Description:
Shape of chain B: elongated
Low-confidence stretches of chain A: none
Distance between the termini of chain A: 68 Å
Helix content of chain A: 25-40%
Number of helices of chain A: 7
Largest interface: A-B, 83 and 93 residues
Mean pLDDT of chain A: 96
Radius of gyration of chain A: 22 Å
Largest sheet of chain B: 7 strands, parallel
Strand order of the largest sheet of chain B: 5-9-4-1-2-3-10
Helix content of chain B: 25-40%
Low-confidence stretches of chain B: none
Bound molecules: flavin-adenine dinucleotide, adenosine monophosphate
Largest sheet of chain A: 9 strands, mixed
Mean pLDDT of chain B: 95
Oligomer: heterodimer
Number of strands of chain B: 16
Amino acid sequence: MKPFQIIVCLKQIPDPEGPLEAFQIDPEGKRVIPIGIPPVINPFDENALEAAIRLKEDYGAKVTAISMGEKLAQPVLRKALAAGADELILFVDSHFKDLDSFSTAYVLSKAIHKIGSYDLILTGRQAGDWDFGITGLLLAEMLQIPSINLARKIERRGDEIRVEKLIQDGYDLVKVKTPVLITVSSEIGELRYVSIRSLQSVSKKPVMIYGADDLNLDLQRLTTKKILDLSPFQSQRECKFIEGESHQQKGENLALKLREDRII
Amino acid sequence: MRPDDERILICIEREAERIHPISFELLKAGREVTDCLNGKLCCVLLGNSMGQFLKEMTPYADEVYLLDHHSLESFDPEVYTVALYHFFQSIHPSAILMGHTMNYQNIAAKLAYRLGTEIITDCIQLAIEERTGHLLCRKPIYGSKFIATFKQEKKPYIVTIRSKAWEPIPKPTSNAEVIHFTPLLDEIRFREDLLKRVKEESIDLSHAEAIVSAGRGVKDAEGFVRLKELIQILHRFFNRVELGASRPIVDAHLVPSSRQVGLTGEKVAPELYMAIGISGSMQHVTGILGAKKIVAINTNPRAPIFQVADYGVIGPYEEVLPGLVKKLEEL
Lengths: 264, 331
Ligand SMILES: Cc1cc2nc3c(=O)[nH]c(=O)nc-3n(C[C@H](O)[C@H](O)[C@H](O)COP(=O)(O)OP(=O)(O)OC[C@H]3O[C@@H](n4cnc5c(N)ncnc54)[C@H](O)[C@@H]3O)c2cc1C
Ligand SMILES: Nc1ncnc2c1ncn2[C@@H]1O[C@H](COP(=O)(O)O)[C@@H](O)[C@H]1O
């Protein structure tokens, strides 16, 4: 029997947990450039990968991780293999620079056609660079399959998937038939720990790499983000530090200060 | 109805019992765009027997469209998308505004694709470019470390807006024409088969007057007891005091998702926000910028939270809070 096929979409981004100073605007004013911080797999995509690997452990599956970009760092993305993905396929081309969400979803849809069959596609709820939160949903539209947004838990019963999806004040348990695309939120759980050793053990594993030419793309359809300008966040506040002989006393002085300033 | 009117369409978000507050912020944002385009501010309500909601909305807009159907009783992303798609296809709005909420960020994306147009999510400012009539959208990016201005050139422009980025629209002035529109629902490809709805606490952080938020620095159950003591005493000074949290606390299932503050959580605007053991990453901070006063308690003097706080205490919360609570009791 053909294994249950899961495709996980991983975006490589500058570490979103990096300090404010590590992000700068490029001279053209259209891009953010990271200074001295490494690229990572988008954290929500790591959550999606974790969900895929758990499904594989619990019910059996083949997990294919894919990533698309102008340039991709193999050592960063190989983490997916070390964590338990069966294969990693990269789609790299200079045409993939600065793509908008529609074009990104379009290229991913062609990439998925190239892979062929699938039962489940997982994406992160949002990429921590541009914070759009729509690529997965657009991809499902293009593939003409249903999508479920914001999963906090995913289980499988045969060709039926049960998803707990976030709603305003709780969650809905819904059931869907495959194929389906699900966007994953962090509540599902962090990606398991990946040791240096297991990273080394996959360093020789083959990674497939394709370019735009391999995808039967209409290059005319690729459009870039239309950005006029970027400006940095600036805090308007000035912090008054509360002093005291002891921490306890600092606490007391905080109460007094809040009273003095008529906040309480 | 003149077909050549520029219509700015607001998707009113409805909960079971009430209109979701973001709807009034959408109306404010929509009014600004409408004035620039010299158009009509319209809103659309979806549901089943919505008489009461209809009355509430007519004073705010020029036209209110009603999509009344038993299938629209409760929210289903595909059903709502199909209903709205047919509606938009027949009235050709110039712009469509929705809230950046769990429900509508989903259908906004689907609609943008089906209508063959563009979309910018989570906007905090909108303007019309005078020369071209294009829509300019300001949106925080990179966890809100920057704000980008995007341009949309294709109509209908579609945006989702961040909650609290606009004030709610002030009291009504107009009296909308009500237009009934029969939803076409035969193209529904798939429905979410709901097995169970689990309601956790129903919390409205966005309207709390004071919020005490726990971060990863709050390590144990005892820590939460301390925070609850503080919340208890703050009730003397504020009407609505709530517990909030940073994302790691939610991901550890210590509190429900609806208490998460930040980029992918609630945007809050209390009189007083207290960040306890929260480092102050921009993804968290962007949710609290509307707070009148921010207090941070953190052991690390270089924690970025102090760059956005009004009052800072450097020290372990385990020792700071007892002093604070004791003094508050005496005041
Ligand atoms: C796309 C994206 C979206 C995100 N959305 C959100 C969001 O909506 N909300 C959110 O919160 N995060 C969000 N995050 C995560 C965010 O980037 C941070 O990782 C998170 O906010 C860190 O939480 P924290 O400050 O509690 O933990 P940490 O960064 O680990 O900070 C813990 C702090 O506690 C202090 N501390 C330790 N012990 C004590 C003590 N005894 N007393 C006092 N202080 C102590 C430490 O000095 C430290 O500063 C998002 C991230 C991404 C990439
Ligand atoms: N270049 C990419 N390669 C692979 N997956 C991507 C890419 N861009 C976006 N995605 C997926 O789409 C999700 C949402 O991205 P976004 O709409 O940019 O916030 C991400 O969490 C990824 O899972």
